[in-house]
Amino acid sequence: MPRLEVCVSTQQLLLFNTGNDTPVCYSISTAEKGVGQQQGSGQTPLGKHYIRAKIGGECPLNAVFVGRRFTGEIYTPQLAKQYPHRDWILSRILWLCGCEVGINRLGNVDTMRRYIYIHGTPDTEPMGEPHSHGCIRMRNQDLVELFNAIPVGTPVLIKR
Fold it and tell me: What positions does UniProt annotate as the active site of this protein (predicted)?
């Protein structure tokens, strides 16, 4: 089974696949406020996770999601001007669930209840720098490639 490693310090996501010794490396953007587990912190949680759900596989590139639902909109610069304060969740969603009770699962540290995803973001947003509100942002094309390469249940380790 493939596995993912998210490295906050290097702002990279690595896809390890059982048939290949060399991981595929993607540039990402984690939380602007750093790492942390607490509900409402706006931080990216650390530790062992897994992909709980894959959302949007049938949607077009740059599909806009609100509340994990496709709005019917396709992201454009004009749409961005119309809604300047949206935190754009685009193309696909990989919803994370924590595995470690008291660290990233249950109570006020529950990654899934915090709605922490790996998701697409506008191509104008920087990668390789922390700018998200807690989630892990990726380029849309990279995310679609990753989405198609992994199943639900894929382990995800988020580390400093």
Answer: 119, 135
| H or E element, residue 1 | none
In a 13 Å sphere around the CA of 127, the CA atoms on its Cβ side amount to 19
Please, are residues 37 and 103 in contact by the beta-carbon 8 Å criterion? yes
> What are the sequence ranges of the domains in the chain?
3-159
CATH number of the 3-159 domain: 2.40.440.10
Chain segment 58-74, per-residue pLDDT in tens: 999 999 999 999 999 99
Residue 21 confidence class, pLDDT cut points 50, 70, 90: confident
Alpha-carbon distance 46 to 30, whole Å?
A: 11
Write down the pTM of the prediction: 0.97
Closest CA to 116 of 38, 27, 58: 38
Q: Would you name the residues annotated as active-site residues?
A: 119, 135
